Automatic annotation (TrEMBL):
GO terms for molecular function: histone deacetylase activity, NAD-dependent; metal ion binding; NAD+ binding. Zn(2+) binds at residues 146, 149, 170, 173. It comes from Coniochaeta pulveracea. GO terms for cellular component: nucleus. This is Sir2 histone deacetylase Hst2. The lineage of its organism: Eukaryota, Fungi, Dikarya, Ascomycota, Pezizomycotina. Belongs to the sirtuin family. Class I subfamily. The active site is at residue 138. Its cofactor is Zn(2+). Residues 8-268 form the Deacetylase sirtuin-type domain. The chain holds residues 8 to 285 of 432 of the full protein. Keywords: Coiled coil, Metal-binding, NAD, Transferase, Zinc.
Length: 278
C-alpha cells in the first residue's frame, strides 16, 4: 500500500525523475547506504545470494551454521574458520567498481552528505570517498586488536599472519587478535549510533547492493523523511522499499543501474574515466 498522503517530490518513480531532481538542485545532501552487492563485481562474494553468496559456500569450514564464522562466541573457541576466510577476503587484491566510484563522484561534486556502508572491504575509501564521509557500520579490516585486553595489534604482523593463514595472538596477553569487524554478538561502532540520525537530514537516498536483513543498519531506510526519494539499486526488492510514493526501484545489476543514472545526469564519461584512473 503506498502512502499517497505524503508530499511527493518526484514527478514519477523513475531514474529520469531522480536525475531531474538532482540537476534541479533538489538533492544537496545525498545519503548513500551500501552492502556487499556493490562489491560482487569486484570479485568479493556477497553473503546471501543463493549459489554465489559466502554463506552458501562455507561447507568446507564445518561450521555449525554459516554465520558462526562471524560470531564472537564461536570465534573464541574456533578462530581458524574466520582466518581461512580472511585470507580470501583480505583487502589489497580487490579493485573498486563503478558503483564505488559513483559515490566518490557524488562527493567530488559536493553532493554526498554521508555514506553508511556495511562492507568491510574498504573499497569505498579506495575509490576516493573521503574518510570523514564514511560510516563503516560493521567495522573494517583496516585495524585489529586483542579481543581480551583490547591492545591494538601491528598492521604489518597482521598482514603477515592473515596472508599465511595463521591465527595471530596478542603479544601482551596471548589472547586472540581479531580485525575491527563487527561480529554477531558485538556492538556496532559508536559512530554508527552517533550518526544514524543523519538519515533524517537527507534529501535523496541511494541504497545499493544490500538485502537489508541485518539490524540496526536495516532500520536506516525507515528513518528517512516522507517525501525524500529513496532509490534502490539491487538485484531484488528488499526492505519494504517501493512502499512510499517517492521510492524508485532500479532492480538488476547495480553497476548497470548506476551507469543508467550517470547517463541521465550527463556524468557518464566523467564516471568511466574516474574509474579507469584509479
Ligand atoms: N547488483 C545488484 N545487487 C546485487 C549484486 C549486483 N551485482 N550482487 C548482489 N546483489 C544483491 C543481492 O541480491 C542481495 O540482495 O545484494 C544483496 C546482498 O545482500 P547480502 O549478501 O545479505 O549482503 P549485505 O546486505 O551487505 O549483508 C549485511 O550481513 O553477514 C552480515 O555483517 C554482514 O554486513 C553484512 C550484513
Amino acid at each position: 500500500v503506498s502512502d499517497d498522503t505524503a508530499p511527493v517530490t518526484l514527478r514519477e518513480r523513475s531514474l529520469d525523475a531522480v536525475a531531474d531532481h538532482i540537476q534541479a538542485g533538489g538533492a544537496k545532501n545525498v545519503l548513500v547506504m551500501t552492502g556487499a552487492g556493490i562489491s560482487t563485481a569486484a570479485g568479493i562474494p556477497d553473503f546471501r545470494s543463493k549459489d554465489t553468496g559466502l554463506y552458501a559456500n562455507l561447507a568446507r569450514l564445518n561450521l555449525p551454521y554459516a554465520e558462526a564464522v562471524f560470531d564472537i562466541g564461536y570465534f573464541r573457541d574456533h578462530p581458524e574458520p574466520f582466518y581461512i576466510l580472511a585470507q580470501e577476503l583480505y583487502p589489497g587484491k580487490f579493485y573498486p567498481t563503478i558503483s564505488h566510484v559513483f559515490i566518490a563522484l557524488l562527493a567530488a561534486k559536493g553532493l554526498l552528505f554521508h555514506l553508511f556502508t556495511q562492507n568491510i572491504d574498504t573499497l569505498e575509501r579506495r575509490a576516493g570517498v573521503p574518510g570523514d564521509k564514511i560510516v563503516e557500520a560493521h567495522g573494517s579490516f583496516a585495524t585489529q586488536r586483542c579481543i581480551d585486553c583490547k591492545t591494538p595489534y601491528p598492521d604489518d604482523k597482521m598482514h603477515e599472519h592473515v596472508l599465511a593463514g595463521n591465527v595471530p595472538r596478542c603479544e601482551e596477553c596471548n589472547g586472540l587478535v581479531k580485525p575491527d569487524i563487527v561480529f554477531f554478538g558485538e556492538a556496532l561502532p559508536d559512530e554508527f549510533r552517533e550518526k544514524a540520525h543523519y538519515a533524517a537530514a537527507a534529501d535523496l537516498v541511494l541504497i545499493m547492493g544490500t538485502s537489508l536483513s541485518v539490524h540496526p543498519f536495516a532500520g536506516l531506510p525507515g528513518m528517512i523523511r516522507e517525501g525524500v526519494p529513496r532509490v534502490l539499486f539491487n538485484m531484488e526488492r528488499v526492505g519494504g522499499l517501493g512502499a512510499r510514493s517517492d521510492d524508485v526501484l532500479e532492480l538488476g545489476d547495480c553497476d548497470a543501474g548506476i551507469r543508467k543514472l550517470a547517463d541521465k545526469l550527463g556524468w557518464r564519461d566523467e564516471l568511466e574515466s574516474k574509474w579507469r584512473e584509479l
